[in-house]
Every structure is written in C-alpha cells, then in structure tokens.
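Hi all, long-time lurker, first post. I run a small reading group and we've been trying to get comfortable going from sequence to structure in the token notation. Rather than ask abstract questions, I figured I'd post a concrete chain and ask someone more experienced to write out its structure so we can walk through it together at our next meeting. Sequence below, copied exactly:
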Amino acid sequence: MLVEFRVGNFRSIREEQCLSFAASNDKSHEDTHCLEAGRPGVPRLLRSAVIYGANASGKSNMIFALMTMQLLVLNSTRLLESQFREQFTPFLLDSDARKAPTQFEITVIIGELRYQYGFSFDADRIRSEWLLVYQSNKAQRWFEYHYNPETGENDWQPFSVHFKGEKKGQRELWKANTGARSLFLTQATQSNSLQMQPLFNWFANDLIVLPARAEFNLMPTLQRLDDPHYKEWALRLMNAADIHISDIKVEKRKGQQIEFMLEPGKAPELRTFDGDIPDVEFCHKTIDGKEQWFDRRFESYGTLRLLGYAAPLLDAMENGKLIVVDEFDTSLHPLLTRYILKLLHSPHLSAKGAQMWMTTHDTSLLDPYLLRRDQVWFVEKKKDQSTELYALMEFSPRKSDAIERGYLQGRYGAVPFLGNFLF
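-- Answer (accepted) --
Happy to help. Here is the structure in token form:
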C-alpha cells in the first residue's frame, strides 16, 4: 500500500512535493474509502486520491516522476549511459536547479514492513540512495550512501544489523558491484538478496502506471479474454457503460511484426517478421436478436479505452495493487468514471486493498457522496512557473461546502486564468 510519494527538482517541480495517502480524522465513508495500514505509527490509508489542476500545471509530471523512479529501480543496472542521461530532467527555469540532482522518495507497506526508500541522481550518476525499514515505530536504516565529489567515491553508512546477506561478505560484494549509474536496490535484488526482493517486486508487479500520452495498450486485456471469469467481468464493465456489447473475442490475424534490438556496443537494429497478431472484435445484437460482429475500427475510442482499463483495474482489485492513471476521464462519461471509483471503494470487490491515484478535469467527482475531502488534491503553477501540490484539507472545508462550485469559482486555486482574446 502506498503511504506517500515525494519528488523534487523534476521537470516543472522545483521544490519537493509530497502526495500523501494518509487519511485524516474525517469519519466520512470511513468503512469504504479507507484501509487499515496495520502497522505501528501509520494512520489509516486512503483507497484513492484525485488531483485537479489547470493544463500545463504539472499534474502529469507527478506521475512521470513515479514512472521514472520505477524505470530506474527496474533497469538501472542495464541502462546505457545515454539512456540514463535522458531520465535526468530537472527544473530548467532556475540556474541552481539545473545543476542540482533530482530526488525521489516513496513510502509503502508490504506485508508486515513499512519501507521508506529514495535516491537522488543527476545526468552523470546516482548521487545518494537510502532505505529505512520499520518493523515498529523505530526505523532500521538498512543502507545509505552519498557521493563524495572530493574523493570520487560513495561514502557509505554502516549496514544495519537487520539487513543481511545470505552468505558472508555478500553485502560488501553487492556494494562493490554497484556502478555509478546503478541503484544498490537493483544490484542487490538481481544478486538474489531475499530481503530486497519484496520492495523491488512492488515496483515490478504492484505498481501499474497508465500515462495519458502513451498509445493505449489493449494487449493485457486481450491476453486474459480466454478466462471466462475475466471475460464476464469485462463485459459487465462495458455494459455498465451502456455500450451494449454482447460478446468479445480475440482473432489472430497474419501480419508483420517489428522487433527493436538494442545491445550494448552495437547499433540499434530493427527486425521484421511475419506472425500472428491478436486483435479484438465486438458483438452487437440486432433488434431481432441476431449477432453482428465488428472489428475495432467501428468502435469508439472511449469503448477501446474502457476495454484497455479492464485488465489493469481487475488486476489491481484482485491483487491489491496501486493503479496510477493520468487524465482518467479522457473519453469516459462522468457517470462511468464515478462507477469505476465506486468499484474501487467497495471493500467487497476490492478486498485486498487496491489503491488508485488519478489526475482529472472532471469536476463532477467533487461530490461528498463519492469522495472524502482528504482525497482531493490540487496542482498550481507558481510565479516562477514551478509546480505546487497541495491538499483540499489545507482550506479546512466544511462538510456542507459545495466543493465543485468553489473550485470552479477559483476558491482553491488550480484553475486557469482566462484572459480576453481579441481577433
């Protein structure tokens, strides 16, 4: 479960910003919208958080930051130097920030432990990395190091006695094998550290990020349509949107596929080959009950996007994962967005503690019957054009306040300033 995520000096984000899933003392929807953390020192956690803000205010950059952190954790030991440099995108509108490192930190609960993990980096190397683990209220600092530019080496803190290698000397070997652009977490996990595995696996398996700009990937959904239970769930989701699809099937079509080969020391290579390409077809029934099948060309973008959401949503609810969606309302009717949030908030349907972090412009979600006040966040551009993230709770709203109307009137900021436009 996600407790909080922090990011500093990344794209439009200059000063450190923190998105917290810690629930307030508000008793609204306590049984449905909150999760028991089950760990000392951690309050109840929220099942979802929704971020609002004007275009180009930095909502997506918060999600890009989490994606970049995930990419580096999973791949830092095998990125080419040029690929590593591409990940460093600091706040460029300030001369000091351009030279300063980017920093990420995340706090998650996995099983019986709370992990507080972070690192900083620039275009050349990892500058620092640390991991604090809580079995109780007291932190165990499993490892921490900071790069020393005077010596050109990392200054390591002593390893915690609670962090052990399976064999004598393994921790020192993992440390020695951690390169300038590699994370110790990645290196230790790939060297079979059993204690590091749960945190690495959280990034690999329990974090689902769906960016707005990427081509929507139907493949995870299509791969599961052979499962009758899953297919029934997907059809129920589609028909809840009043789309009137009676069946879905996957057809294999002959086509040319492209494979991108990238190996260290070799030029990139594109390879094409003939193969079976899965595609989806949708069945609609005529007024006299006959079946008519259509391929994806005849379905709306909203229908395809909803089908693409089906697999990640079900995966998150079945297995208690975090799903992060940028511009969740794109091509979805507001009532459908509400429906999906209600599914996620249902303790019966989401029994393993799934969480969702989304950005949206859909102000109809600012409804006290749908969201608690502590689930709402705003993003705004400051005078220096940097991003500021803040919670609705900072305004101490009353339960009777009309949050949607107040937001559109500019009471909470995070709305565009619309000047006069003259031809």
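A couple of things your group might point at:
The chain is about 25% helix and 30% strand.
The mean pLDDT is 90.
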